[in-house]
Amino acid sequence: MRKVVISNEPFNDAASIQLTSAQQNVYYIEDTQEDSGAGEVYSVLNETGSIPDAGFVVLNNIPVTAEGRGMFEERFQNRAGLVEKEPGFKAIRILRPETSDTYIVMTVWESKDYFKKWQESNAYNHAHKKRGTKEGLGSSIFPRPSYVTEYTI
């Protein structure tokens, strides 16, 4: 399984990508040989597309209990894949944490406008229709609320 590291400190590797927001910069690298002490290490559970040189990046940070990991991963392994068909979509990575409980669903878009259009689309509503229902994942597997961070490349 491929590895990803996300760090608050820059990597020496030229293949790393700087993600910028008004609050902070973080650094993202795939298939790295960097020392894992440099940041949070993730396994790539599912991926589509390539990370471009420029774009808008959304990290949906989702804490999951140890007991809920299997259900959570199964749900994302069997996702409908509708986001990939949306205009402006560039890439998605489903990242399993190796040292914490917070998964990351990373999507990359041509621009923030395309991301906002996805959030307003029928495909988005379909992809999230089970959220908060009996058919969705039970809230007991989420020890804390999820949160979203947004960046530009």
Describe the structure in your own words.
This protein is α+β, with helices and mostly antiparallel strands. 15% of the residues lie in helices and 37% in strands. It has helices at residues 69-77, 112-119, 122-127, and strands at 3-7, 17-20, 25-30, 40-49, 56-63, 89-97, 102-109, 147-152. The chain has an eight-stranded antiparallel beta sheet with strand order 2-3-1-4-6-7-5-8.
Helix content: 10-25%
* Series of secondary-structure elements, N-terminal to C-terminal: EEEEEHEEHHE
The chain-level structural class is alpha+beta
Q: How far is it from the N-terminal to the C-terminal residue, by CA?
A: 25 Å
The strand line-up of the biggest sheet is 2-3-1-4-6-7-5-8
Number of helices: 3
List its traits.
single chain, 153 residues, alpha+beta, 8-stranded antiparallel beta sheet, 3 helices, globular
Please specify the SSE layout and strand pairing.
Elements: E1 3-7, E2 17-20, E3 25-30, E4 40-49, E5 56-63, H1 69-77, E6 89-97, E7 102-109, H2 112-119, H3 122-127, E8 147-152
Antiparallel strand pairs: 1-3, 1-4, 2-3, 4-6, 5-7, 5-8, 6-7
How would you summarize this macromolecular structure in one to three sentences?
The chain is of the alpha+beta class and 153 residues long. Helix content is 15%, strand content 37%. The model has no long low-confidence stretch (mean pLDDT 89).
